[in-house]
Amino acid sequence: MAKIRKIEPTIPQIKKRKKVAAYARVSRDTERLAHSLSAQVSYYSRLIQNNPEWEYAGVYADYALSGTSAEKRPDFQRLLADCEEKKIDIILTKSISRFARNTVDLLETVRHLKELGIEVRFEKEHINSLSEDGELMLSLLASFAQEESRSISENCKWGVRKRFASGEMGTANKHILGYRYDEEQRKYVIIPEEAEVVRWIFQLYLDGVSLQGICDKLTEKGYRSINGIQYMEGTMAGMVRNEVYAGDTLRQKTYVTDPISKRQVKNKGELPMYYIADTHEAIIDRETWGKIQEETARRESLWRPEYCFTGKIKCGTCGMPYSRSLYEIKSGKCAYWTCRANKEVGTSCTGIKFKESELMKICAKVLGIDSFSEEEFNRQVLDMTILKNGSIEFHMVGGETRLWKNLRINESRHIATLTECFKGRIFCGICGKEYHRVNSVTAGHVYWFCIGKKLKGMTCSNKNYADYQLRNISAWMLGLSEFDEAEFDKQVEKITVQPDGNLLYHFYDGRTSLWQR
Fold first, then answer.
1. φ, ψ for residue 294, nearest 5 deg
2. What pLDDT, on the 0 to 100 scale, is given for residue 450?
3. Which of 79, 84, 211, 395 could form a disulfide with 60 if both were Cys (CB 3.0 to 4.6 A apart)?
4. pTM for this model (two decimals)
């Protein structure tokens, strides 16, 4: 009998091509770098299209944008969005510094792409993000790139300040009311018809018209700002202080705190300023300019007194500055700092308000000094941001950020809690008696008090503490994001309420730690 062997049909396996894209970037707007970016785009386009195993997914390029922040690079963001939509398998880039100079941004982005199964290849460093040692090498090299960025930034700042000191004009606003900036002459040139409006504005100001009144008159006559919008009081306030109208230039009014965040702040004496006289033709003569500044000082002394926190506090909820308000209480007047949005017509904000005295105590604690010192505060602190949860972010002069965490112990409204592990562990530092709990969950009042207040023959006056206050304070003392009864049981032997209301924590390992109100 004949043997029959079945031969199965073979289907040729077609290898799926990888979708490959490239990313390129240059940080400055110059002819040489524009050519460099064009060359990068051409190079990667040819490289990808000439590889038969790759499918061309495009070249993403950002021009004249810094690599220290991923959020400010539109094509980089478009690249990441296409990665999310599975349009890309491999990303090619020249080097780590082209991809990102910020170590945190780099690692977060590469790790996220790794989770999506997307490979990033850094040509200069010969690094593949999906390889075993890829992330370690990225961490090390990205740190070098970040420090290189910081070094370049410092060198650039040094060069700019040298030019300021030698009297060079440097870059300037291209157009302010009354002037345009002439690139060839490198100075401001008067626009005659606008200069007449400027002179009229300054005369109104000397005649006693308010800043808002001047804005109203400009609107009535149909004048608009150089941005095409109605004049605002804040714009007018800056205009009457602008030395440009007297023919002078003040350089370094603002500065960048660090090259990574690129956060620009007002220079309040932290760095030298450079006043360059007679840099261009004046619209306002010297005599009139002097009168304007005298009038400005007179008005400010009447309605804008300076306080220690003036201009230093920003709302993290809406972005508005905080301002000072006085409230009548039984003992007299009390100063509070509140988000400015709550004073404006038609606006409101949920930003937390603070007593001025409380802010001073917080600042002293953050600065590590016994009591608040305005001189020390101004020397060390650039500004503060009140976060949504009431915590305060301090931005220090040296670039450091410090956080004061709001334990929310002063809130009158809160969720009532019942904590069993506090029983037998809270003692009075005045009379030595134990603290007992009063339960009224429905009314929201659950608090601990010294039993010595109730005993005959005793008159203890130590502070009561709400249960939720003790939970929040204990979580803070234990380094926890939220209170954990098991962890408290494990570590804390007892709490002594001091005569001044501070809490002394006694731990099982023998150490003590004081929480200060």
1. -65, -40
2. 92
3. 79
4. 0.38
